């Protein structure tokens, strides 16, 4: 077994399905799988050595379902159907000591549980549809600062949370952001659209010397060290082809775009992202770092179509569904190179088939999610 976990051994949590498999074998199996998917559509691609992850303490984000009572909260996951816990009438499994989480996250769990009791935050009960607190989401930055988000059914407990917030800030002095997310619907959705920020504004995720600013509803990779390797690899490939103009789609808070802007070739970089908050965060980092040739726009597919004609190199980092119709636009564009970072090799292979003029020349697997079947793969495509 690659990592000892008493929750897995006892059958309480099966999230890390590959835990019985030695880590080196996990990595080898992922490499076989991704090559099986991509080699038929990417013949002759150069595969670089996979990027390994730490086997424990690597996950910078904890998404905890809250069950139990306000006096005795349970922070973890819902009890799996058919498990001993479910048979005993327990709604959840406590995973405060999950070995995937950074030590800082693990240490914060006891304080957060005490805060739930202090503020009398009744956990939401799925069976009765009563209670308020659904999830606690905690993110830790490389500098040890934290963001805590409480996902609530309604605004009923907001006043109590505000009242006891000074206690929480004193107990967890590393808290940079505290917010409340409202998710009133009775369905399996982690969070809702409305966010109430109580303390701070952004969490600074410092990666390869770049201060990336994460807001409560923003996205950031959960494995900081492997994310740093991903950005560095993309920047190396970008620097090697020295494009004059780089376009980063799905740019988020600017991870790829800002790394590209620091390349020795000094390209002009444009990042496009639908989230205005993420665009504001990326602009802030560019200003702080003096990256005057990096600009960011809030836009959708229409904006992308307008910007594509001027790009020499395009970076895409889509969600699991892939790039969809954008594949045809890239195929028809004049872009010489594409850097495609994917968390789903199945949709990546499909998208590559739709871009026959863009030939994958090198690729690398990055083990963003150890002990699971998931991984990230980044590939460099160049026009034939």
UniProtKB/TrEMBL annotation:
Keyword Cell membrane: no
GO molecular function, one term: rRNA (uridine-C5-)-methyltransferase activity
Location of the active site: 343 (nucleophile), 343
Annotated residues for binding of S-adenosyl-L-methionine: 221, 250, 273, 317
UniProt KW keywords: Methyltransferase, S-adenosyl-L-methionine, Transferase
Domain Methyltransferase, residue spans: 245-330
BP term (GO), one: rRNA base methylation
Alphabetical list of CDD domains matching this protein: AdoMet_MTases (cd02440)
SUPFAM superfamilies according to UniProt: S-adenosyl-L-methionine-dependent methyltransferases
Gene3D superfamilies tied to this protein: 2.40.50.1070, Vaccinia Virus protein VP39
Family per similarity comment: Belongs to the class I-like SAM-binding methyltransferase superfamily. RNA M5U methyltransferase family.
Protein name in the entry: 23S rRNA (Uracil(747)-C(5))-methyltransferase RlmC
UniProt organism field: Nocardioides jejuensis
